Amino acid sequence: MTQQTPSRGEHLRTALALAASGLPALPLRAGKVPFGNCARCANNACGGRPNMKTPGPCACSGPCHAWAAATTDPDVISSGPWRRAWRTASTVAYHPGGAGLTVVDLDNADAIAWAREHLPVTQTVPTTRGEHWLYLGAMPSTNGVRPGVDIKSTMAYARWLGFGTGTMAYLPDAVRALAVSKPAPPRPAPQPLTGPVPGGGGECRHRTPAFLERGIAMAEQRITGASEAVHATVYRTFLAVLSTHGRCGCLTEDHTARLFTAAQIKGETARHCTEAWTNARTRLGL
C-alpha cells in the first residue's frame, strides 16, 4: 500500500504537539529548507537574524528566520502568518538546542557502524538514509565532524521524524569531542564571478596588488576572529570585498576560495558560503 503524504493540517497538529512537549517547532519547505525572510526582514532590514542564521532582535510574526523562529508558543504556531506557511510546508522541524537536546545525524551505514562502536546507546530515529541519535544536553552545532556525521543542536534545526526507539542518554564527552577535533574542511570550489570583469591581468585597476592582498588577509582575519554572529560577519565581509574589488577584475578563484575556507573553518557550510556570496553580489548589482 502506498504511504500517504501528511496533510498540511497534520503538519500543524504535529507542530502543536511538539510545542506542548517542549520542542520548539517550525515548518520546512520542499527540499527540507526553511522559509526565507519576508519582505520586511529581507537583506537584514529588520536588524536581526540575517539569512536565517544569526539570532537577533527581530520579532517577525512569521516563521521567517529558520531555527531562530522555532517556538513552543501555540498561539504563534497557529497565527495567520504561520498558518499560511503550513499550507505550503512539506514537513515539520524542531530546534534541538532550544529543547536542551543534541542530534547526531548519521547519514549512511558506515557512519551508523562507527557510532555503534564509539558512542553510547541512546534514543534512535530512522531517517531516509541513516539515523538520528538523540542525547540530553545541548552543544554548538557542527557539520562534517566525521564522514557522514553532523551535529545538530544550538543554532540548527532537525526534521521531526518521530520518537524512534530506545532511552535517551546524556550527551557524552565523545560527542562534544567531535566538534573540538573536527578537521579543517577541504578547500571549497568557489562560486566564480560572473559579473562585469574588465581586463587587468588579475590586478586591481585602481589599487595596487599589495592593497588587494592586504584586503583579502584582513577579510580572512575578520571572519576567523568572529566569536558570534558568524553568518552575519561572513555576509558583511563578502559584501565589503565585493564592493571594493567586485567590478575591476582583480578577484581570482584563489581569493574567493580563501574567503570560503575561512568561513567554513568557523562552521559555515559550502551552501551558506555560496548563498552569502551570491546575496552580496546581488545587492551590489554584480
Could you explain the architecture of this structure?
The relative contact order is 0.11. Helices cover 36% and strands 14% of the residues. Residues 49-55 and 187-203 have low confidence and may be disordered. The chain is globular, with a radius of gyration of 21 Å. It is of the alpha+beta class and 286 residues long. The N and C termini lie far apart (51 Å). The strands form two sheets. Strands 4, 5, 6, 7, 8 and 10 form a six-stranded mixed sheet that branches. It has helices at 8-20, 74-77, 80-88, 109-118, 173-180, 209-224, 230-245, 253-265, 270-284, and strands at 25-29, 33-34, 91-94, 101-106, 123-126, 131-136, 142-146, 149-152, 158-159, 169-170.
Give me the secondary-structure topology.
Blueprint: H1 8-20, E1 25-29, E2 33-34, H2 74-77, H3 80-88, E3 91-94, E4 101-106, H4 109-118, E5 123-126, E6 131-136, E7 142-146, E8 149-152, E9 158-159, E10 169-170, H5 173-180, H6 209-224, H7 230-245, H8 253-265, H9 270-284
Helix pairs in contact: 1-3, 6-7, 6-8, 7-9
Major beta-sheet overview: 6 strands, mixed
pLDDT average, as an integer? Answer: 80
Order of helices and strands: HEEHHEEHEEEEEEHHHHH
Estimated helix fraction: 25-40%
* Morphology: globular
- The residue ranges in which pLDDT falls below 50 over 5 or more consecutive positions are 49-55, 187-203
> Strand tally, please?
10
Cα-atom radius of gyration: 21 Å
- The SS-based structural class is alpha+beta
Distance between the termini: 51 Å
Strand content is 5-15%
Number of helices: 9
